[in-house]
Here is the input.
Amino acid sequence: MMAFAIYFFIGWLTIICFFVQKKKYSIVENTVLILSVLIINLNWTWLVYEEFELITYSREPWVFVAYLIKRSIVIPVIVLICLNFGRKQSSLVKKLMHILVSSLVILGITMISHLLKVTTVKHWSIFYDLVYYLLLHLVVLGIHKWYQTYMVDKEKEVLTK
Here is the structure.
């Protein structure tokens, strides 16, 4: 029950931080980004937890709900907060620093998950999680770049005709 309370609080805190934050992307772009993160993260956790059984999660109902909150709300929203942080013209170094800090925050939340026995590690290293979170940010940033290039520019082109 303690894990549920902690992750419920973290989940609401991340949602509130996202809605209070000044966003540099439109609602449509943020929707595309969060759905992309959700799809990637759900498939990744399914592979690691269910298929390869490298990490297991608790079967207790409230603790499992804590796991679901982390997987489906906390991680995607933190990635979205990171991508919306700063200005559109931010330098590459600033963007990479935001990604690193965001990945470390998610890694800290993952370590809390291990401490509270929400997840149990079998053949896994916390370093693999860090690499995954860094790659998740970069892949979603690439998806956003693709979306801006092909969708937003096409919409502007259609509107000017």
